[in-house]
Amino acid sequence: MTVRVRIAPSPTGTLHIGTARTAIFNWLFANRHKGKFILRIEDTDEQRSKPEFVEDIKSGLTWLGLNWDEGPFFQTQRLNYYHKTIQKLLDQGLAYRCYCTLEELENMKELQKSNNQAPRYDNRHRYLTKTQQESFKAEGRKSVIRLIIDDEQEIRWNDLIRGHMTWKGSDLGGDMVIARARENSEVPFGQPLYNLAVVIDDVDMNISHVIRGEDHIANTAKQILLYEALDETIPYFAHTPLILNQEGRKLSKRDGVTSINDFREMGFLPEALVNYMSLLGWTLSDSTQEIFTLHEITENFDLERVNKAGAKFDWSKLDWINSQYLHKISAQELVDLLIPYWEKNNYLIDIDFDRQWLERIAILIQPSLVRLNDVIKESSFFFGENINYDDEAMLHMKQESVKDILELALTKIEENSILNEDDIKKIIKEIVKTFKVKKGLVMRSLRAGFSGKLHGPDLIESWRILNTKGWDKSRLKDLLNIL
Ligand code: GLU
């Protein structure tokens, strides 16, 4: 069998982490079985669908490295197919027009509620006569299309993640709406609903496996009835666990970031995010290995190893995985990734001229980066002639000998044009000897003087980086004026 899977997002919002994780599982499954991964945009909800969300979904998938083999296909361009199928179902007597008004449906619900019954459509228009239909039409009522659901029927499938699944027809809420009432007479039917469009598309696109979130399980039961009504082959189904927040509830906007673009802006690398997301609900047989590329996972991916239980989203694990990737990339790559953050913060840099200088900063701070946007906190003190001193650093300056230490350092800087590592080590030694102070005090004073903080990356390399711009001198001069 040729494996053909799809991701079918609705462009009613930006690419959500849950959709991206479903896309990863589909991509892995397709690639594992040398099949095809298809992108379909489910945009039949014309009021809520927006072209900018389509772009966001496409660029998010591309950024994550989830290239699709076919598509994007748009449901709004396939309305003819849905209309034809609706007509066929009507002609075969498997679907019918229901003329119930909203008010009637509301009353039905109220009555069921007061009788302690679950809300459902009571199928009252299933067998309307021609005359009844004509009189409803004459009243100006509009009609939706409903598919007949046999309450007695048992719907079964063997879910590739969850095993044997059984649903009762009676649990599906009565005959289901497959198309809304039409808005104008130019179209034969109103908006086709998700369950109908998805089945027609999956049939037409020869989808062999439907891999999607477990929130679609009830839809699967309804869709199987549609496959049967259309006399089409039912694909395999696999329902993936949901991504949960720390409280065990479905991860939502309220938990902060959920859109892939936000993760991107926060400084996660696509490889790291994909690595982390693939572990949300799936484990390798050797679960000690946690760092791998999509291609490495492909070799080992199978649906049997996808968990049934929901997967808790764990920021610290994502951070850890991201840091592993960040610490490994080359200085060149890192600089390319960091430049946009420096630019956004208006650090005046001439990217071409300062490239090598920036690379030195990148190498120096690389081990402290967890997310790319940490770059500002870690490297801000490298940029500009002057800096601000934090309270801790100012308090340190008040100590005895600190002014002397900095004065001598400034003299030494002025004596040498460019300082190399040995020069700096010598200067530090000389200061220790001259003032008979501890080396630690000298180092802390210099660090505070150059960076305005008592903590930071390697002092000698930091000093050298500032020295090439002459900012070690300008900073000590300014500082000594106020001490
Ligand atoms: N448009 C649906 C969604 O975004 C697709 C579900 C499916 O894969 O069938 O949830």
List keywords for this structure.
single chain, 483 residues, mainly alpha, Rossmann fold, Glutamyl-tRNA Synthetase, domain 3, Helicase, Ruva Protein, domain 3, 4 domains, three-stranded parallel beta sheet, three-stranded antiparallel beta sheet, 47% helix, binds glutamic acid
Largest sheet: 3 strands, parallel
Question: What best-fitting shape do the alpha-carbon axes yield?
Answer: elongated
Number of domains: 4
The percent range for strand residues is 5-15%
Low-confidence stretches: none
Give the mean pLDDT.
95
State the secondary-structure class. Answer: mainly alpha
Spatial sequence of strands, sheet with the most strands: 1-2-3
* CATH class call of the largest domain: Alpha Beta
Which ligands appear in the coordinates? glutamic acid
CATH architecture of the largest domain: Alpha-Beta Complex
Q: Determine the CATH superfamily of the largest domain.
A: Glutamyl-tRNA Synthetase, Domain 3
The radius of gyration is 32 Å
Helical content, roughly? 40-55%
Catalytic activity: tRNA(Glu) + L-glutamate + ATP = L-glutamyl-tRNA(Glu) + AMP + diphosphate
Binding site for ATP: 253
Pfam families: Anticodon_2, tRNA-synt_1c
Organism: cyanobacterium endosymbiont of Braarudosphaera bigelowii
